[in-house]
Amino acid sequence: MTHNNLPGITKTSSKCIHQAQNRAGLREWAGLALLSLPTILLGLDLTLLHLTLPALAIDLQPTSTQALWIMDAYGFFIAGFLITMGTLGDRIGRRKLLLIGATAFAIASVIAAFSTNASMLIAARAALGIAAATLMPSTLALISNLFVDPRQRALGFGIWATMFGVGYALGPVVGGALLEQFWWGAAFLIAVPIVGLLLLLGPFLLPEYRAPNRGRLDLFSVALSLIAILPIIYGIKQIAKHGFALDAVIIIAVGIAFAFLFVKRQRHLADPLLDITLFANRTFSIALIVLLVGLIAVGGAMLLVAQHLQLVVGLSPLVAGLWMGVAALAMIAGGIASPLVARHIRPGFVVAGSLGLSVVGYLMFTQLGSNSTYDVILAVTGLALAYLGNGTIAALGTELVVGSAPPEKAGSASAMTETVQDLGISLGIALLGSTANAVYRYTMSDQLPNELPINIRETVSDSLWSTYSIASELPTGLLAEAQTAFTTGFHTAAAISALSIAILSILAAITLHRIAIYSDKN
Predict the structure, then answer these.
(1) pLDDT surpasses 90 at 103
(2) For the chain, what is the radius of gyration of the CA atoms?
C-alpha cells in the first residue's frame, strides 16, 4: 500500500516528512561549531600582525621589502592555491584534506612563532597561506554535506561567514592584547589548541565526502592557475602600497593572459580543475559579482576607518581595534539573521535591502570631520552598516553560489567564493585606498610651505601614515592640514563606494528576485 492510498496523507505532508528526515540533528550542529573554530582562526591570521609588526621588527630587523612580505605572504598564497585545494578536496576527501591542512597549519604556526630571522618568518607565513587554502574550501564544502535541508544549510553558511568576518575584525584586538602580555610570536600559537581540538573531534563529527567518478588532478591546470592568480594579486597589492605604476600593470596583464589560457584549457578537459560551465548559471555568476563588489567596498572601508580612528581621531591601535570589533557585531547579525529572514522574503530582496543600509553607512563616512567623539560614533556606525551588508551577502551569496552547483562540484564552487572574497578585499584596499591617497597627495601639493626641506616634503606628500611618523619635525598646523587632506580622500572613496553599492543593490533586486532557495522544491 502506498502513501497516496492512505487517508489523510497528502503530497504536502509527504514533503514535510521528507524535510523532517533531512533536518540536521545535534551531531551536525556540533560539527558546524567545530568547523567555526578554524574559520575564526583563518580570519584572525589575516589581520593578526597589524599591531605586532613594530615589536616583530625590533626582534627580527626586517628590511622594508621583507616587512611587506611578512604581512602579505599569507593572503598572497591563500589566493593562489584556493581553486586547486578546493578541487583537490573533492577528489581525495574534504574531511581528509581539512585534517591534513590543519596539521600543516599548526606546524607552520609554531615555526612562525619561533622564527629567528625575517626570511624564516616569510617562509612560515607562505606555508600558513598554503595550509589555509586547504582549510577554507574544506570547511565551506563540508557544511553542504552536514546540512541537506536548504534552510539549515543557509543558516550554516551564515554562521560560517560570520565567524570568518569576526576573526578578521578581531585580529588587531587579539594581536594587541597578546602583545601586551607576551611576545609577538604568541599570536601564532593560538592555532595549536584549535587544531588539536579539530584533529580530536573531526573524525567523529564531520562526514567524509569524495566526488563520484573523480578524475586525476591536472597538474598543468594547477600551474596555469597559480601563474594567473599570483601575478594578479601581487600587482594589486603593489598598487595598494605604491600607487599605479607601469611594472604593476604589466604584472597584472601577464596574470590576465595566463588566466585566459587557463580558462581555454578548462573548456577542453573532461574533468577540469575549475568547471567553467558553472558560470552559465545566472544565479552563480550574479552572486559572485555581488560578493566581489560588496567586498571591494568593505575592504576599503576597513582600511580607511582604521586609519581615520588612529591618525585623525588619535585612538591607540588597541582602542581602535575594539571600536571596530563593536562594529563587527553587525556582521554577526547580518550573517545569522539574513538566512532566517530569507525564509519569508526572497533572498534577492534581502540582499538588496541590506546593501541599501550599507549605502547609508558609506554616506555617513562622507560626513566625517576632525578628531571628535562624534567622529568615532559616526565612523563606527557607518562601518557597522557596511558590515551588516557584508554579513548578509557573505551568507546568502555563499548559499546561492554553492547551492547552485552540483554536489560533486561544491568544493570547487566554495573555492570560487573564497577566491572572490579574497580578491574583493585586496581590490578594495588597492582601488579605494589608492583613490583616497591620490586625493590626499593632490590636496597636500598645494599646502606644503616652499621652505620645507625636501626630505620632509617627500614624506608628507607620500601618505598620512608617513606624515604622522615625523609629526615632531613638522611646522605648526601642517599635521592638521594633512589630516584634513586624508579625510577629504576618505570622503571621495566613500562616495564611490556608496554609488557602487547602490547600483549593486538594484542589480541584486532585479536579477535575483525570482530565486527562492527555500522553496519546497529544494
Answers:
(1) yes
(2) 24
Sign for the CA dihedral angle at 291, 465, 313, 171 comes to positive
CB atoms within 10 A of CB 158: 26
The answer to whether the pTM exceeds 0.85 is no
- Distant-in-sequence, close-in-space partners of 116: CB < 8 Å, separation ≥ 6: 60
- Give which of 107, 39, 122 is closest to 77, Cα–Cα: 122
The reported pLDDT for the residue numbered 34 is 86
* Distance set, CA 328 to CA 88, 320, 339 (Å): 33, 12, 18
Q: What's the rounded Cα separation, in Å, for the pair 93 and 207?
A: 10
More confident residue, 516 or 253: 253
Amino acid at 428: G
User: What's the CA gap between 404 and 136, in Å, rounded?
Assistant: 19
pLDDT value at 504 more than 70: yes
Query: Distance between terminal CA atoms of the chain?
Result: 27
Is-contact 74 132, C-beta < 8 A?
yes
- C-alpha 515/C-alpha 348 separation (Å) is 7
Q: What percent of the chain has pLDDT over 90?
A: 9
Residues 6 or more apart in contact with residue 286 via CB below 8 angstroms: 400, 507, 508, 511, 512
The pLDDT, as a whole number, for residue 9 is 37
Residue 3's Cβ-side half-sphere holds a number of Cα atoms within 13 Å equal to 9
Q: In whole angstroms, what is the distance from residue 368 CA to residue 349 CA?
A: 30
CA distance 64 to 70: 10
Highest mean pLDDT among 27-41, 110-124, 158-172, 409-423: 110-124
Q: What is the mean pLDDT of residues 10-18?
A: 43
Look at the block and give the residue holding cell 578524475: 215
For 410-432, b/e burial (b = at least 16 CB within 10 A) is: bbbbbbbbbbbbbbbbbbbbbbb
Contacts of 448 (CB under 8 A, 6+ apart): 457, 460, 461, 478
> Could you give phi then psi for residue 401, rounded to 5 degrees?
-70, -55
Q: Is the pLDDT of residue 335 over 80?
A: no
DSSP assignment, residue 475? P
Q: What is the mean pLDDT of the chain?
A: 77
Q: Any idea how long the chain is? A: 522
**Mean pLDDT score, 97-125:** 90
Q: Calculate the CA 229 to chain-centre distance.
A: 16
DSSP 1-65: --GGGSTT--HHHHHHHHHHHHS--HHHHHHHHHHHHHHHHHHHHHHGGGTTHHHHHHHH---HH
CB 359 within 8 A of CB 505: yes
- Dig out the grid coordinates for 120 from the structure: 624564516
Grid cell locating 152: 539549515
At 273, list the grid cell.
Answer: 580543475
Whether residue 277 has pLDDT greater than 60: yes
- Cα separation, 153 vs 141, in Å, equals 11
The predicted structure's pLDDT at residue 213: 62
